[in-house]
């Protein structure tokens, strides 16, 4: 009987392993993320990604242990603008996504049309995420 209890406890504990999403990070540690295309986004996140915002806007959406982060820079008068993720780190109990806006060079030949620069990334975590401009 005692042997069965030990076996059951062992099975229970082995089933309770820690997933990557629940992993604890060290302060200042870089967090792995992946840029995703529109086609790789879940349907409800894709709807947020497709919007063309005239103002800066960010979204964070949690689904199945994955945090999706969408950053819209807002409307730009020409092409040549881009959003770049510069760093993703663990700070003070949350994950911080740092981004910067890349502007076209003054002498660059760019599209003369309104553009809406944006990016989407995914992070395998359930930890809260904050977005900051670098």
Describe the structure.
With 134 residues, this protein is of the alpha+beta class. It has one domain. Helices cover 16% and strands 34% of the residues. It has two helices and seven strands. The chain has helices spanning 2-15, 43-50; strands at residues 34-35, 57-63, 66-72, 82-91, 94-102, 118-123, 129-133. The strands form two sheets. The chain has a four-stranded antiparallel beta sheet, with helices on one face. The N and C termini lie far apart (61 Å). 14% of the residues are buried. Mean pLDDT is 87; it is low at 13-22. Residues 67-124 form the PrcB C-terminal domain. Residues 1-21 form the signal peptide. It comes from Anoxybacillus flavithermus AK1. Keywords: Signal.
Trace the largest sheet across and list its strands: 1-6-3-2
The dominant shape is: globular
Unreliable residue runs: 13-22
- How much strand? 25-35%
Average pLDDT metric: 87
Please give the share of residues in helix.
10-25%
Structural class of the helix and strand makeup?
Answer: alpha+beta
Count, helices: 2
Return Rg in Å.
20 Å
* Count of strand segments: 7
List the secondary-structure elements in sequence, H or E: HEHEEEEEE
Report the major sheet: 4 strands, antiparallel
The tally of domains stands at: 1
N→C terminal distance: 61 Å
């Amino acid at each position: 009987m005692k042997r069965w209890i030990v076996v059951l406890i062992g099975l229970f504990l082995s089933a309770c392993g820690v997933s990557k999403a629940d992993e604890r990070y060290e302060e200042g540690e870089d967090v792995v993320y992946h840029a995703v295309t529109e086609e790789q986004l879940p349907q409800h996140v894709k709807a947020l990604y497709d919007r063309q915002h005239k103002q800066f806007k960010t979204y964070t959406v949690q689904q199945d242990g994955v945090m999706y982060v969408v950053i819209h820079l807002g409307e730009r008068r020409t092409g040549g603008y881009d959003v770049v993720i510069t760093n993703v780190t663990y700070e003070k109990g949350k994950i911080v996504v740092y981004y910067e806006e890349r502007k076209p060079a003054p002498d660059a030949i760019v599209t003369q049309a309104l553009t809406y620069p944006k990016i989407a990334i995914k992070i395998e975590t359930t930890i809260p995420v904050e977005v900051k401009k670098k």
